[in-house]
């Protein structure tokens, strides 16, 4: 065993044990290990008996990864998973540390890891995955990631290094993601939506990838599901949405999600879930395609998805002071708008919107002007806003002709929101990432912040 690896392992495991006693610092042990030995994770890569699955994309990573993990675990296989949502290399390294013994040995069939968009190329290089799933690509934290074209180029270069034994799963509805599959050595599979009841007539003003990634011509859409995702083609170079290996059909959104999936030469299957939103219909398509590749029994898949509970701020539900609270993480224009769309059904809602501008949120909050807040006129009559940029958010909502109450202090904002609720009503909180961590800490009494 490499001496640097051994020292990194021992120090980081001691730190990990200490932090577990304090319920904090999920990524710190991995950060320390990588500082001591930059190749730390390479020592674990070959120990997975069946391989590693990496899941990346702007929106939907945490829920999708958790579902895949549950499907694999349900097969009585050992799985290592970065469950706390720490999706940089340090977070994955911490998960490996937690699962290893003091000699650096792990006993796992699969590794299922959520991976940050900017980290994906490095993760591919180090972990040599068996399956890579890319969900979508939207603007998010421009001060950190830059424009989406740069991210896509980095992804393409890393995907080209994969072996012919690797499976790459791509969202055909996203033109930038779909065209990553061209001329790859790996096996490439596509999933997408095929439900004309949920088509938008026009592409939204905040859509990101409306130009052909190959020739920069304006794309033509036969159908738009949300943002720039839909049935698309280029009339100049004739690129178009690839044929689907799995199609998601007959989507029902009120109040929770059900759908039908179609695979070639297989009977159609109806899926019920506690998740919501058209975006989760797409995510479920990805999960179901992977389950098909792994040859997991369809009845077992349906049960796991039906029983799956939303986690870590993604439609996660709490009971706090006798009242029901739901959190919908909303961290970029597309994600925030789709969170709002999930609330359009049923009675008027009680809303608390929380905008922070810490590094993990993106320090530039101008993106809020690309959120379709005008939809909230059909959702609520009064909104409480909070967070480090509460006043910026209140101004944006004023332009949308919405009434707001400003309470910058989050705990007070939650208390004020709950005071307006009857016992049978639910408070819906739509926070950015660091605000979500803080909300969870208040509601749950502990924090998973790094």
TrEMBL record:
The protein's name in its UniProt record: Lipid II isoglutaminyl synthase (glutamine-hydrolyzing) subunit MurT
Functional pathway: Cell wall biogenesis; peptidoglycan biosynthesis
Function: The lipid II isoglutaminyl synthase complex catalyzes the formation of alpha-D-isoglutamine in the cell wall lipid II stem peptide. The MurT subunit catalyzes the ATP-dependent amidation of D-glutamate residue of lipid II, converting it to an isoglutamine residue.
Keyword field contains Acetylation: no
Family per record: Belongs to the MurCDEF family. MurT subfamily.
Residues of the Lipid II isoglutaminyl synthase (glutamine-hydrolyzing) subunit MurT C-terminal domain: 329-436
PANTHER family, per the entry: LIPID II ISOGLUTAMINYL SYNTHASE (GLUTAMINE-HYDROLYZING) SUBUNIT MURT, MUR LIGASE FAMILY MEMBER
UniProt keyword list: ATP-binding, Cell shape, Cell wall biogenesis/degradation, Ligase, Metal-binding, Nucleotide-binding, Peptidoglycan synthesis, Zinc
EC numbers, comma separated: 6.3.5.13
Chemical reaction(s) catalysed: beta-D-GlcNAc-(1->4)-Mur2Ac(oyl-L-Ala-gamma-D-O-P-Glu-L-Lys-D-Ala-D-Ala)-di-trans,octa-cis-undecaprenyl diphosphate + NH4(+) = beta-D-GlcNAc-(1->4)-Mur2Ac(oyl-L-Ala-D-isoglutaminyl-L-Lys-D-Ala-D-Ala)-di-trans,octa-cis-undecaprenyl diphosphate + phosphate + H(+); beta-D-GlcNAc-(1->4)-Mur2Ac(oyl-L-Ala-gamma-D-Glu-L-Lys-D-Ala-D-Ala)-di-trans,octa-cis-undecaprenyl diphosphate + L-glutamine + ATP + H2O = beta-D-GlcNAc-(1->4)-Mur2Ac(oyl-L-Ala-D-isoglutaminyl-L-Lys-D-Ala-D-Ala)-di-trans,octa-cis-undecaprenyl diphosphate + L-glutamate + ADP + phosphate + H(+); beta-D-GlcNAc-(1->4)-Mur2Ac(oyl-L-Ala-gamma-D-Glu-L-Lys-D-Ala-D-Ala)-di-trans,octa-cis-undecaprenyl diphosphate + ATP = beta-D-GlcNAc-(1->4)-Mur2Ac(oyl-L-Ala-gamma-D-O-P-Glu-L-Lys-D-Ala-D-Ala)-di-trans,octa-cis-undecaprenyl diphosphate + ADP
Gene (name only): murT
Binding residues annotated for Zn(2+), in chain numbering: 212, 215, 234, 237
